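Incident review: delayed structure delivery

Summary: a single-chain prediction request sat in the queue longer than the usual turnaround. Root cause was a stuck worker, restarted by the on-call engineer. No data loss occurred. The affected request and its eventual output are reproduced below so the record is complete for anyone auditing the incident later.

Affected input:
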Amino acid sequence: MTALKTKHATFASLTRKASVVAGATLVSRVLGFVRDLIIAFTLGAGPMADAFFVAFRIPNLLRRLFAEGSLTLAFVPVFTKTKNSRGHEAAFALARSVQVWLLIILGALTFLALIFAAPLTMLVAPGFRDDPQIFQATVNLVRICFPYILFISSVALCMGILNSMNHFLAPALAPGLMNIVLIVFALAGYLSGTSVAIALSMGVLASGLIQWAFQYPFLKKSGFNWLGGFSLNDPGVRRIGKLMLPTVFGAAVYQLNILAGTILASFLASGSIAYLYYADRLVQFPLGVFAVAISTAALPSLSALAWENDLSGFKRTLNSSLSLTLFIALPSTAGLIGLSFPLIDVIFGRGAFTDYAVEATALALVGFAVGLPAFSCVRPLISAFYALEDTVTPVKIAVVSLVLNIILGLVLMQYLAHFGLALAASISSWVNVLLLGMALKLKTGPWLTSKVSLVKMALLSCSLLLVLKSVSVSSWMAVALIPVWAALYFILATIINIPDAKIILTAWKKDRREEKTEDR
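Output delivered after worker restart:
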């Protein structure tokens, strides 16, 4: 009974933290949909759309690799350990030291990228060399977008500091600001008759600065100030550096898979990169709102438990995060596959976005959706390794997954075009998850304890997919019925005793009671 109460307490604590991130991220993702709708309307899915998405992909990939992908995951455990052992001031000095190193390294990288933008574009989109006009346009856009990495890496550092101080709201709200800025710049470019691609690229750069400025009041409230002592030789900085070096690949295998898809797609028909981009954006909705939110909330707890050498608590927290992640990801997969065409048609099917683009993007969405459960589980599993300060194992597995993705992509694109590239990314991510799970078992012993409930979730989600495929309604009606299907899934999950549904319901009722008590 005590163990059950402990499990429920762990789950409830994780749920509360994750709900803060998920709620803020939900706002950002809704704005992201509006942003993508505006971009699809003003830019479409043609050559200039491909050029912008390639230019944006480069700093965005570096953001995943050097910022959210490895910096945050490497920074949080070291910052948490420093805060617990040496106090807040030592931890804050560590953060300032990391910021100085970021400015030095990324400043030099940005300078080189501006000079060598053409070779960089050739590396990311080699297929563009057959069209000199589009290639040069992409080079120009790369020069505008690339400095974004300077600001957004600092935003990721702010996120690490705030999350370690158990503040999750501000970092989760920051991406919403980017979406608002891009919406404004896209409409400004369209209405003024100037290049929408150039306007969007300028918006990317402006959004980085705005997101960074937004974090500072919350940092100051937590007691942090950028003005203060720092040391380039701080032992914590060296430790973070050692953790980051291998995680450049390991923490962002999904983004590297997408980049590989972008490179290969540049050899396919015009618009292929845009189809993959728009489809990926829809997959990113449940991934960003729920999976990343849960792993973000779990990482500080995992780091603290690893520091305390509480292996049972560590496994319990990891299981709770994965179970909650899949409780959302599995039915989301069913929904994205079953409603692929209606979703793309309703969200993007207007303006410069043609009927053919709708069909092609819907096909790419199915390919990516197959891998959504795997995409969702990668981050919590990698967080577990980082909390244990093992970054070598994930990078080895990531390399295997990346190589597999490239091989599968090269083969499948010959027969399935851009759909084959999306499918290759999904298959390689499933391999990544399975290998990570087996490697973690070698380190901690058996850790997966919710097998029965996972099987129930999978069967219920498959049933949902069959129902969605059998119902024939208009695109707008199909999308309007999504809340009905979500409610039905939750009700059935409660009936067949899936623990996650009951614990979420209990936590919700508890929060409602607390709100009523506060009102009195």
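Verification: Residues 1-8 have pLDDT under 50 and may be disordered.
Action items: add queue-age alerting; document worker restart procedure.
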